[in-house]
Every structure is written in structure tokens, then in C-alpha cells.
Amino acid sequence: MTADFLVEMKQITKRFPGVLANDRVDLQVKRGEILALLGENGSGKSTLMSILSGLYRPDAGEIYVEGRKVTFKSPREAIDAGIGMVHQHFKQVDTFSVAENIILGSKEAKFLLKAGKVEKEIEELSRGYGLQVDPTAKIWQLSIAERQRVEIVKMLYRGSKLLILDEPTAVLTPQEARELFQVIRQMTARGQSIILITHKLNEVMEVADRVTVLRSGVAVATRERQQVNQRELARLMMGQDIIVPSKKNPGQFGQEVLKLESATADSDSRRPGLKDISLTVRQGEILGIAGIAGNGRRELAEVIAGLRPLSKGKILIGGKDVTNLSPLEIIEEGVSYIPEDRLGSGLVPNLGAVDNLILKEYRRPGLGRGPFINRRKAGEFAARLIQDVGVKVTGLEVPVKKLSGGNLQRLLLARELASSPKVIVAVYPVRGLDIAASEAVHKMLLEQRSKGAAIVLISEDLEELLKLSDHIGVLYKGRLMGILPVEEAEPEKIGLMMLGAQPGEVMAS
Amino acid sequence: MIRLERRSAPSPAGMVLIPLTAIFLALLTGAVFLYINGLGSPKGISWGQVLAVYTGMLDGAFGSGYGLSETIVKAIPLMLCGLGVSIAFRMQLWNIGAEGQFYMGAFAAAWVALSFPDLPACVMLPAMVLTGMLCGGLWGLIPAVPRAYLGVNETITTLMLNYVAILWVNYLVFGPWKDPQGMNFPLSKPFTPAAVLPTLGNSRVHLGLAFALVLAVALWIALRQSRWGYEVTVIGESPRAARYAGMNITKNILLVMFFSGAIAGLAGMAEVSAIAQRMQQGLSPGYGYTAIIVAWLAKLNPFAILLVSFLLGALQVGGYSVQSSGVPAAIVFMIQGALLFFVLGGEFFNRYKIVCTGKTKMEV
Amino acid sequence: MKRIISFVFMLVFVVALVGCGGEKPKAQEDKKEPAAKEKLKVAFIYVGPVGDGGWSYAHDQGRKYLEQQMPDVETSYIESVPEGADSERVLTELVEKGNKIIFATSFGYMDSVIKVAQKYPDVKFLHCSGYKTAENVGTYFGRMYQARYLTGIIAGKTTKSNTIGYVAAFPIPEVIRGINAFTLGVRSVNPNAKVKVVWTNTWYDPAAEKEAAKSLLEAGADVITQHQDTPGPQQAAEEKGKFSIGYNSDMSKMAPKAVMTSAVWNWGPYYVETVKAIKEGTWKSSQYWGPMSDKIVDLAPYGPMVPEDVKKLVEAKKQEILEGKFDVFTGPIKDQTGKERVAAGQKMTDAEMLSFDWFVEGVDGTIPK
């Protein structure tokens, strides 16, 4: 064990039902450094850090702190070993004071709180690190940034040597974020180590000493900050090994099927929705959509599937205006949707394969008579689909939540592709799947393409997009930055467009 | 460290063993209390006598044709209310309002019986059934509307409407509906014989039992075989998937709450017609609330609801019958409470398991 | 599969229950039979728990008295039986268990008593406070209004604020009659005093009764009385340092500083008389409404705070009632609107008293119509 490293994680593997969240991940943290842990949403950053902070236990792999092997059974034990995590959602008692919150649940909190002494200690501690916190203030009086500082002070007070910050700037204004970065730099000067979980490239460049990049649960690279640039990081994050799309036949595009004209929609929260999106997808064409999470990828998918109303603009399918029709009417128009959350909107976890497969078919006369569903016919229908796509199920009535991720996705595709759709919207269709399952899903999509479907493929994996798409569009803050033919779509170019560059600028550079 | 983890599926052995253990523990707890209580009496008590209390309860509930028939009488409103709430629960609509829907059903049926006393039974009874169901259904629909259109939590609104319904019936029997011959006592006029549901032989078991049986079969078929039942199940399990599949969630909320209320209303109609045979306050000793436990224990399965209602009915009938052997009511209520507590608690262990975090065992 | 398993479990449960049920009861009955042959079995059903310190408690005291006085009688009781559907079953079970006389001690059992009595003509039923009789069903009650009147005198003499609070259960004739008698008693010594009535719509709810009394105390009442089954109102008066008059049984133990006296039921002698008459075959169905002179109603001993002169006044009036020289509801009696309802010198008939639906002058409250 080299004692250079404060913390070392070796070959960490963590599986969740249907997902391989961490796959033999190695990670090292030096004393007094800021390590950025970079990755897309769902790449396994949070899982890895939850393992390090004692919230989860790994299925395999080892953790060493200062050269000694440790196993954490609870966050408490991780804190005792000097590892503290500041989560995105703070667990604080609103009506308690800062000092009370800091001492809450710590070892010192027996029965009697020596408030005065604790408050003084906290004040000294926070002054030392440049974290302005009034220990007597009540939590409800504080801003989000101040609450975050309280959380950091809490970890320092408990003797943390390694502080894990989970996307700390997500809740901060740019000014607050800058202040936070100053503070953590000061902290490293005093010997603290910090892991900064983020998916923002500029933060890495601004504050990190080193960066480890996770993609699909695998640690793909670790670099010194000086040795990388944003472009390379983007490539690492999105998938660097770009295979020339060999399996794909050249496109034979037919008539226009899907057309969006100045489509504008609100988002659920303050995040940008969609602004003025115009695009066209023809028969036999796959339009790939790239973009960083929160820039309108999901909204675009929902708008096409009829799940999110347009505030402005139009959607046409086969020349027919389908703007703001009900989901049912959109389905009737031949739109299939492979949503981002397979087990949330795609499939019904507690129901069996039959009930899930007839979800879009149960109204059709083929499956029953009058108000009834013919269970026998439904079973036959389901069995046929299952055979077609080769899903392995233990029984047609076994809740589908017990299936693996790959089988779930095959089941979902079987249903969505059964009706020979005119338009397919697929969102992250291979997220969390192993290579074989991913290949199978890609094959199914390409088959639909050759059958003449118009496909919108939304993905965080650039490799996947380049492999399957005929054209690639890039979303940034709800706007379509441009659509490039796949031949012209170099990963660097796409990466910069994802950060807000116009295609013209990229070409010029 | 000990932690709770949700089971991905209840283990088959657990489904049998846990409830049996729960019942055993409940009876054991009750026995201890009975014994302690018995120590205070001048004659003292033996464990044999404690056992006799339990056999007495069983005897009271099942031991004779009469006991059995009374257990069924007690079970009928539980069955109907349980079936009613189960449809709503299936769609994850927490209808706590069966009690109020029961009262409104009874109210409407009584209104028909009191306002048109000259109707023959063949017109009277169907009219009472229809108005009872309609009124109970509308009472269920009231909280469904804000829920469907504004997302207002139905748990609170259904609960609050119970009080409105109960006070409304109280108002009627203390006021406008008071029997002039009743010397100012809070009772309505008795119904004419035409307004009383037929009973089985000499017992008090009434046609409501047939309602419950038919409804259970109908519900089972509807939920399993019909498009509507399929929609209800999908909406309950995953509203997002249902929405994507183009199901009309708003319409189904309204429909399901109406049916849920209508069935509870039918229970009220049957009870007021066959048992009370006049409107009076305290018509239900909380059937609508017990029905929630029934539906939950039965895991919303219509046939299991019939059975669980029967068992809960037995628990109450048996409870009164052991009092005459000198067991105080409070102890009987405690045994009943302990049984429910342990069975419901056991249910918890069917759904969760205790994990000792000291070991690195993973459940898949 | 899951459903099948749960269904099987349910079946097992039932079979287990029935199976156990089949074996044991025999042994139990064997034990009981020899005793049952000798003794006359008498049963009581109560609406509240026997420990309520009020209505059911008073009846249970009567039951104990009966057992004491007649050793050849075996009594049993079932408590907390809700009025309505359940009572019919409980009555039937008591008959099936060999009871020959059943006292049903709450008004709401009336219809059930009549129904069950039809099925079992050889069993005698006595129903307290109702109005329906049959060949084998008699009713019984006491003229509590006489005691109420006397307590009214004490309240009228005690009040300083001239406001007396009355916590009342339901607006039924029995309760209204008590309020009227009490008010007449109050006004006989203090024509300016008012009796303020609050309805609780429950016979037995310790918390609600206490709350109702508190609201009356806050509204200025300095003496509290009640037509309720628990001592909650008495305790409310005690806590506020005010005075009170109990009901059902002597409530002075629960609120020693407040309770001046209680209008009490004394069922024992009646139970003994009735059981004896039935045993000897001289009993006939009747509507018994026992006066104070039968000892069925009485006053509990006075608290130390009641002055001697008041005691004397009350005792004198009591003597008149006992000797039949004074009737509480003797005209002139005016209603709340000031209209004369009973002409001077005229006495109200039992039928009129049993269907009281109006308040006398001096009552501050309304009867819901």
C-alpha cells in the first residue's frame, strides 16, 4: 500500500437489480488534493461515493484508508475513519440552531449539550477555513448556500479528512459557486482532501487537481488537470472510442414523417424547456440528439410522444397536425416511445409480461370482445412477441421487475415495435445494459430503420449516436444548436456544441 | 446495526408461517392478560379457564347455527364495504370514506322506504338498492372531483365527509324524520315490511350476503378480464405508464370512486333495510373503517375479502359471547386488538425483512 | 400464485379455528350444568362498561345487590353492548345460555328486546326507559325528575352568577324532563337563575362531557349538573373551583370539593322485587315508573359545603314528595316563550311527561326539531 494516497478504492463493483452501477472501479485520492469525479448522470458517480461514505456496501472490491483496509457498515463508521459526504439534499432540522445541527448525531451528543463550548469551537473552525457560519442561527433562517456551509462545517467538526461534495454547485448561483471553490481551495491548503462529484466540465477545469472520469459504471480515465482540456474530457465522458458505423447501410430516406415547427414547451422546473425547435425526420432515418442532461433532451422526447404540451409551434406526423393531441391519439398516429425510465413510464414493474405487453394493444378488437380482454389471446400475443425478441422470462405472469435490465428493455422494445410504428422516440435505450444487450437493442432499432420508420434517438453516449444516427442534432439550453450529417459530426465538434457553440464557430476553429 | 429492507417478493413459506405465528402470539398475549385479570378475582383462575375463554369465543362465533348466522350478519357490511374500498385501493386511491358512503347509502334507501311506504316489495327493494348505491356513489364522487382535476389528496377529504354524512343522519333522526309515535326518541318510523330485505329462514342473514357474493365474483371478473379492470390495475401500479399508454386517468378516478362509494352505499342500504329496519343513529359501529383493514389483509382479492370479513365478524361475535362467562369487555377488546395488531404487524414482515448490516449478505 | 397461497392460508386459518372450536366447548358445558339446574339465571346487558361510574355502574350495583339478597339467583352481565344490531344477538345468546330473566338497561335495546321476546315467550324481559311492552316484556324506570327537582333547589340556592350549567346527552323526553324538573327546582328558590343546556349527543364520552362542562363554566356557570354517564363534568367543576351536582351514582369521590349531592339511581330493591315476583309467578307485564317513595331514586349524602338551612329546605320538600303531597309538574308552568302550558293547580299526566318536547321557562337552550 502506498501511503501517498489518503484513500484508495480497488476494483469496486456494485450491482442493482437490472443495472451494473459500478464495474471494477479503481480510484485514488491524495492528501490535500481536489479530485473531480466526472461523469454523466447515471454513470455511477453517486453509487461509488455512497459506497465510500458507508451508505452502500460494494458487491466486490476493497477500500483502503491511509493504507489500512476498511469495511464501512454505516456512514457513521466512514465518518469515524475521516470520510464525510455532503449530499445534495441536506438532512437538517429546521428549527434547531446551526450548532445543534452540527452536534446532532455526533459522538459528543450525549444528553447534555454544552452549547457555549460547541459554539465557540464551531466558530473557530469555520473562521479557520473561511466558512462564515453563525453557530447560533437557526437553520430556517439560512440560505441554501449557508446551509451547505453548515453541512461542510459539520463534517470538518467531526474530523473529516476527506470531504465528498455531491454536485455542490447544482443548488448555487454562479457567485456562490465561485465562493465555494475558494473555500475548498483554502481547505486543501490545510491538508483536507476533497472529492468533487460533477458533470460540469468547466468546474473540473476551474478547481480540480486531478480528474477521474466514469462512464457507464467504468472508470475510463484519470488525468492531471494540466494535461487535459474540456474537449478531451467531453470525449472521455461521452465515449471516446468512436467506431466507424460499419454495420449500418447507407440511408435510403423516404418521405418526411415527423416534423417539428418552432416547437416550444415549458419544463417541469426552472430548467430550460424547449425553445423554437424545428426539425424533420424522414422514413428510414435516424436522427440522433446529443446534449448534456438538463438541456431539453427529455422534454423533446416527451413532446413528440404527446406527454408534454407545446406552448408554441407545431408537430406534424405524415403531414397531419398532431400538436397537443392526447397520448392515445399520438399512439394511434403510429408513434412509439422508449422512455428513459424503463420501469417508471415504460413498464409496470409489478405486473407480468402479458399485462405489460398488451399495454398498447388491449383496446384492439384482436384481444377480446366487448368490454372484456380475452386472456388466452392476450397470452398468445405476448408469447409471440417474447419469442420474436428472445426475452428470457421465467413466466408470463411473473412481475417484470424481476427481469434483468437487458430483458426489460427487450420486452419494452418488443411492445413498442410490434405495431410497426411510423415514428420511434428512443431515450437512452442502452443505458445500464451490457454489451450483448446493447447490440441487440441497436440491431432492433436498425431493423426498424430499414423498415422505414423515422427514429429519434436521444442518448448521452456519443459513441452510440455516431454509430446509429444518420444526422445528429445538439441541444443546448433548450435550443437546437444545429443538425449535422453524421459524416461531418466529429466528436470534438459535437462536444463543443453541447457546451453552447454554434456549428459555424466550431468549423472555423 | 439492524435495518429494514423491502422484500422483492414475499417468501411463500413466510406467507403461511408469519400469519400463523402472529395469531399464536396474539392469543398468547391475550392469555397472559386473561390470566392476570383472573388472578384478581376471588375464585382465582387456571390456565384451563383461560383456554376456555378462547374456545368460548370460537363457540360463540361458529359453534352453533345461530352463532354462525350472526357471524355472517356481522360480516355482510364488512364484505360490501371491503369490496368497495378495494377497488379504490387497487388504483391507489385511499378512500377512507366508506363509513360516510355507507351512511349516505342507508340514508337514501331509508328516504325511499319512508317517503313511499305503499310501494310493493318488488318495486321498493330495487328502488332502495338503486338510490342507496347512487347516493353512496355520489358521496364517493365528491372527493374524487378535486382529486381528479386538482390533485387534492383524497385521504383527508374522504375522511372528513364521513363526519358530514354521520351528522346528517343524526340531524334527520333527531329532527325531520323523528317518529311521531316515538315519544320524541331519535328514531325514524319503522319501515314497512315491503322495505325489509328478505332473510334466510329464521336467521338474520339477509339478501345482502348474496349481493356481496355476486359482487365479489363480478369484481374478480372485471378486474381480471375486462379492459376497465386492466386500466385500473395499470393506473394503480404506474400512473406514468398508464398515461403514456393513453389511459384516461381522470375519468377512471371518477369512475372508481363512484363504484367504490356505491358498493359501500349498498352495504348501508342492506344494513338499514334488513337489520335496523328504520333509520337510527349509530347504524354502523365503524364498518367503513374496519373494511380498510379487511381490504388490506385480503390484499384486495375479492374472495379473500369475503373470508377476512367473515373472520373479523367472528372475532366480534365471539367477543361478546365470552363476556357472559365473566370476562370483562375491556379484556375482550384487548384480545381483539392484539389479534389485529399481530396479524397486521406480521403482514409487515411479509413485505419487509430485517437485515443485520453486520453481515455482507445481499438479497437479489 | 400469490393469491392462491394467501387463499390457502385463509382456509387453513378457518379450519384451525373451527377445528379447535369443535372440541373444547363440551368440557366447558359439562362443568356448568350441575350448577345451572339449581339456580335461577338472570342476565343484564349494559350500554357502557360497568366501571363508568355512572349509568351502567348504578345498574351493576343493583345486580350485585340482587345476588346478595337472593343467593339462589345466578347473575351475569355483558357490558359495552352498542345499541342497535348487536344487542339483538347478545340478547339471543343470553337466552340460549339459559337465562330466564333479562334486564336490558338502555333505551336503544327496545326493538331488539321486543323481537327476541317474541321468539322466547317463556323468558321475561325487563327493558329500562323504553315504552314498548309485550306479554313477557315489561318496562321499568324511576321518577328521577323528583330527585332532579330537589337538586335544583340546592343549585338555585348556591349559584351566585345565576347561571347553572347542564350537560345533557340527547334531546329525548327523559333528559328534557330532568332539565325541566331541575329548572323548576332552581326557580322555586331563585326566580332569576337560568339553566344553560349543552347537548353532547353521547351518553358515554368522558372527554366530550368534560369539554362541554368547561364551555358552560367559561360561559359563566358556577354550578354544573349533568345527564351523562361519566363524572367528567363534575371533574371540570372541581378543577375550576366551582360546584356541581352528580347523577346516576354518588359522584362525590370523583370530585369531593365540587359535588354537593347527586341524584342517584338505586336499582337493587326493584331488581329484588321483580325477580321475586317472577319466581313466585305473580309478575305481570307493566310499565313500572317508580316514585322516590319506592327508593328507586334518591339523593346521595350532602357534601360539607351545603349549608344547614338549604339541607333543611330540601329535606322538607323531599318529605312532601315522599308523602305524595307535592308533584313536581304542577301548574302554573310556562314554557320558554312565556306561554302557560300547564294551568295553575293542574298536574301533568304521565303520558305528557313521557313525551316532553318543550322546555320550561328559565331554561337557556333549544331542542333540535
Task: Please describe what this structure looks like.
Helices cover 34% and strands 25% of the residues of chain A. With 509 residues, chain A is of the alpha/beta class. Chain A folds into 3 domains: 5-238, P-loop containing nucleotide triphosphate hydrolases (Rossmann fold, 3-Layer(aba) Sandwich), CATH 3.40.50.300; 245-334 and 421-509, Rossmann fold (3-Layer(aba) Sandwich), CATH 3.40.50.300; 342-418, no CATH class. Chain A starts with a strand and ends with a helix. With 364 residues, chain B is mainly alpha-helical. Chain B has a domain at 76-310. Chain B is built from 13 helices and 2 strands; from the N terminus they run βαααααααααααααβ. Mean pLDDT of chain B is 86; it is low at 358-364. In chain C, helix 6 runs parallel beside helix 7 and helix 6 packs antiparallel against helix 11. With 369 residues, chain C is of the alpha/beta class. Chain C has 2 domains: 38-142, Response regulator (Rossmann fold, 3-Layer(aba) Sandwich), CATH 3.40.50.2300; 144-264 and 298-364, Rossmann fold, CATH 3.40.50.2300. Chains in contact: A-B, B-C. At the B-C interface, helix 1, helix 2, helix 3, helix 6 and helix 10 of B face helix 1, helix 2, strand 2 and helix 4 of C. Chain C: This is Nucleoside-binding protein. Chain C: Keywords: Signal. Chain C: It comes from Desulforamulus putei DSM 12395.
